[in-house]
What does this fold into?
Amino acid sequence: GLVRSLWPDDLPLAIATVEKTAAGKNRTFLRANLYTRWGECDSRAAFAQADTYANAQERNGIIYAILDGVARTAPVTAAERILSFPSGPKRISIVRVLASSWAATDPKAAVAWIDKFATATVLERREFVSTLAVTWAQRDLKSALAYVQKQPNVKFRTEIIYKFANIWGLSDPRSLVENI
It folds into this structure.
């Protein structure tokens, strides 16, 4: 779309224009998309700009948008930044985004990271592993299934396998039966 066609050097001006001209939900939506794009291109500059927002709610929304972009291009950087946020619904939301993006590019690195994510709450770990596994399974069902089968909690393991079944049962039931 239009935002993706912008050069990184044009993003600050585009954001300033949105801040001056757009209102309400349109501003929030456009700003988030622009910051996500900036997070993909130059996260340091985007984070520096986000820090200039006085309103904590706006600043946090912008930071999460930036992290969405960073998670697509530099998941380790995004993961390190996530560790600095307080636990809660927003952090869980960005953990899901990170897991999905990372699973699409390097699921084994994502697995290694979650194993070291000592400050994760049980819910964050579950959300990360579940999202990672489901996204990974869309590319490589056997590897994702092998990973899931190593999860120590039987109920959790079963929940993820059930998600696999919902996805593949509709599109390729034979493959599902052969692999699970």
Q: What stands out?
A: The CA atoms of residues 126 and 156 lie 8 Å apart.
